[in-house]
Amino acid sequence: MIEDISANAAEAAMFLKGLANPQRLMILCQLAEGEKSVTELIDATGIAQTSMSQHLNKLKDENIVSFRREHRTLFYRLEHPAALKIMAVMHDEFCKK
Question: Is 1 a residue whose pLDDT tops 90?
Answer without folding.
Answer: no
